Amino acid sequence: MKNRNVEGAIACVGAVIGAGFASGREIMTFFTRFGVHSWWLILLAACVMIMLCSLTMRAAGSQCTENWCGIFSGYSKVSRHGSQVCAIALMSITGGAMISASGHMVELLWTFEWAYPIGALGTLCLAWWLGFGSTKSISYISGILTVLFTGAILFVLAQKNDDQWVVQLQSSADRTSIAFGAVNAIAYAAMNLTIAIGVVCKCANQTSRNVCRLSAIFGFILIGMLFLSNYLYLKHPELQNEAFPIVKLLSQFGTYGFVVSVLLLYLAIFTTLIAIICTLRNAIESYVMPSTTSNIITLLLPIIVSFIGFSDIIDKLYAPIGVCCLIFVFLPIMIKKKRKSS
Prior knowledge:
Structural class: mainly alpha
Oligomer: single chain
Helix content: over 70%
Shape: globular
């Protein structure tokens, strides 16, 4: 059972570590730019993710379902449709970011005129296929990703001989900025747990102790990876406007560093896209459409959003949709749980 908890936690981590996380773009946007305040903002986001992960698994377990839409089967029509529409919007936005990023990664390694569309659509189709499987395959890929990501960050840090501690990004932020950072951190947590909700529900139907254990393992792994990344990017404030900061850092070590950075990002894109497609498919199928129609919509929505572009999606759309997820996806679950307790 302990192995199952670790397996489930790693699968959930893989769902969260998308291109935005692994590239450093998300970490810069949500945490590092707040300077010294970034450390407690990371802890805030991780605590919220642990709480929401546990809450979701308990709700799925009580409904005896692995389909996240089944959690809302006993809720009002407004709550049910609100959660599904919000999740569809989020999956379309994040799926679009992952599709766009996957095309860019293939384009970086393959100098072919059609590299971008082939990479984007090929990754989407493969993620669609693996989304029907168990968490075991996702866990294996996520495990490789976690090791590769941690190794890459440690390698970059080890190459720096100076001990200079650079914090130039809003190190003396005012109260308004700090409050904005806290809201951003909570939005980040809600957004990522909604992305992973399909995988999280597959890990449900466990005892209360195992639910807590899996959630804690998931949270601790994320805290470690976020702290390590934040430490690195605080030392490189000049990368704040880079779309893929980790690629910039690893590319300075030559061809091998560049290839490793691209493979790292591609694995991150792939694991998150599996979770996104799984969640999006469940939401659209809940409207009882013909199978062919729901499949086409599931694939078409993120493809359309991908035309916005990777950086613009993360910088402009992630935080607002994260707040919406907290309100429409998780708040009804919290209210229902409180009523049951009363």
